[in-house]
Design brief:
It is a single chain. The chain is of the alpha/beta class. The protein folds into two domains: 51 residues; 259 residues, Alpha-Beta Complex (2-enoyl-CoA Hydratase, Chain A, domain 1). It is built from 14 helices and eight strands. Helix 9 links the parallel strand 5 and strand 6. Helix 1 runs antiparallel to helix 2, helix 4 crosses helix 13 and helix 6 runs parallel beside helix 8.
Length: 324
Amino acid sequence: MSNSDTLVLDFEKNIFEIESKIESLKYLTQNEEVDISQELSRLQQKLEKQMRASYSNLTPWQKSQVARHPQRPHCLDYVHALIEDFTPLCGDRCFADDEAMIGGIGRFKGISVVVIGQEKGHDIESRMKYNFGMAKPEGYRKAQRLMNLADKFSLPVIAFVDTSGAFPGVEAEARGQAEAIASSIEKCLKIRTPIISVVIGEGGSGGAIAIATANRVLMLEHSIYSVISPEGCASILWRSADKVKEATEALRLTAQDLRRLGVIDEIIAEPLGGAHRNREAAIERVGDSILKHLKELMTQSGDELKKRRTDKFLRMGRHFAESK
């Protein structure tokens, strides 16, 4: 990916300047008479130092920007890289197919699995196709159908969470959006097979938890997971979009905050500079983490998996109720 194709975030400007210099020097290496190896080495070290300094001190709002980065790997990137023989399964058998909710069967590291996830798309055309990752009721009913399939054939479920929330349109409400999300959460709690969810970008509201009520909830280091978007929170509490940074702080939506609160089970470290800078490495790390947890969960019986999953979320609810 060239610099010209890269979205530069505000806090990445110094990084981008160094990367541009490196790209320019690499172009000069075509001239064999010019030895710039030492200068390249110096700039590479400077780049690494700058990225470590920038990414080790990100604010919650900056993490939100990284989580939403358009070049960050999305659901289908993980599916194509990690799932062999993936066969998409479409439709909710009631109304229609929702392309924002990806679903199907395949093999992960030789293990037959059911895969569910939200796809945002990478450009205008694909974002429109996938409705920016915002599923409608038929998307959540498709997810339920796939979870029933997983339960029937004792297949583990892997869910890739990446949505700003469920689609808020009038037609979605008319078709029972709230009921579809609630039923999807209920289905997650009832099936007797392992469920592993990974927040790979943005985990927003009920649209996320509908497929993230799992035995293990994992998060990439710079992902976010919250009850509402920062913008939505700012508009409700402060009635001003200018308060989005304050809202982001208040929501405690970073992986680090949520791990301390016990909402998630593991933080997956991202490559230096974020997943959008090294997509292959990020995907590989997610795959390694999923495999580790899947091996642990597959030793448990169906009843044990169901009970532990339910107890986990009930315990979480009691903890937050008692802390108020």
